[in-house]
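Module 6 notes. Inverse folding takes a fixed backbone as the condition and produces residue identities as the prediction. Think of it as a translation problem where the source language is geometry and the target language is the twenty amino acids. Below is one complete input and output pair. Work through it position by position during the lab.
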């Protein structure tokens, strides 16, 4: 027996030992070796579906979140978009609080792990207070800008040459393109929205040629009057940092011009 085969056999034996299976009224309950924030093991409920299996948490994940949070507030704005992104990435669906996945008959194990991974990430939403979302926003924005344009094209805290008092009007991210530079501003609150507006107006006042894009942490958190002012000053905007693919597509479009 090879080392790989020995490891596989040991893992199979261990997993089988740690997985409890019971018949219950809601279906076949499978207790997985995955522990949630409350210290309890995740229980997945398996029922037959057309051509395979329906694997569900029977609403337990959102119920646990509701113990410490107002779900209406928790699953709103940027966190609601993050919640939906987690569901999509894990291949999960939600129906009236029940999180589930349907898989072919031969893919039961994959479905169990997909559910386990997804609900574990969803439970962590309870840790994402507004202050924490704002504190990680700039790091998230930096990551997606560099992913789209590459480190060689990106300058952070860019001081625009030839502009009076340029040191007081820094651009969050300058992306070098073959034509006008693309200036990207991150906006996570009202103060940042107003600052970005002032900087853009200053650059436009001095006839500087550039394109601009605003990336919001969550546009719904910004007062409408500040949104309108910023919309008039900027070329483009993305309503939420969660929409990574949209941000990347918009940057890529500017690079291709």
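Target side of the pair, the amino acids:
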């Amino acid at each position: 027996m090879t080392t790989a085969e020995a490891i596989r056999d040991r893992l199979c034996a261990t997993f089988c030992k740690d997985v409890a299976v019971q018949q219950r009224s809601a279906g076949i309950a499978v207790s997985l070796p995955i522990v949630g924030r409350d210290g309890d093991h995740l229980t997945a409920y398996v029922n037959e579906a057309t051509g395979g299996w329906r694997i569900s948490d029977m609403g337990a994940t959102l119920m646990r979140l509701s113990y410490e949070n107002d779900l209406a507030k928790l699953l709103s704005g940027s966190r609601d978009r993050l919640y939906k992104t987690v569901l999509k990435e894990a291949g999960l669906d939600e129906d009236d609080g029940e999180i589930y996945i349907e898989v072919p008959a031969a893919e039961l194990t994959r479905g169990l792990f997909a559910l386990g991974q997804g609900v574990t990430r969803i439970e962590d939403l309870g840790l994402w207070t507004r202050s924490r979302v704002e504190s990680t926003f700039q790091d998230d924005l930096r990551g997606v800008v560099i992913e789209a344009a590459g480190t060689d094209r990106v300058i952070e805290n860019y001081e625009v040459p030839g502009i009076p008092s340029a040191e007081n009007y820094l651009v969050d991210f300058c992306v070098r393109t073959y034509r006008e530079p693309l200036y990207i501003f991150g906006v996570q609150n009202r103060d940042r929205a107003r600052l970005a507006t002032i900087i853009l107006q200053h650059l436009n006042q001095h006839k500087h040629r550039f394109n601009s894009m605003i990336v919001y942490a969550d546009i719904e958190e910004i007062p409408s009057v500040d949104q309108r002012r910023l919309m008039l000053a900027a070329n483009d905007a993305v309503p939420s940092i969660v929409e990574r693919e949209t941000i990347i597509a918009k940057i890529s479009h500017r690079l291709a011009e």
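Reference fact for the lab report: The mean pLDDT is 87.
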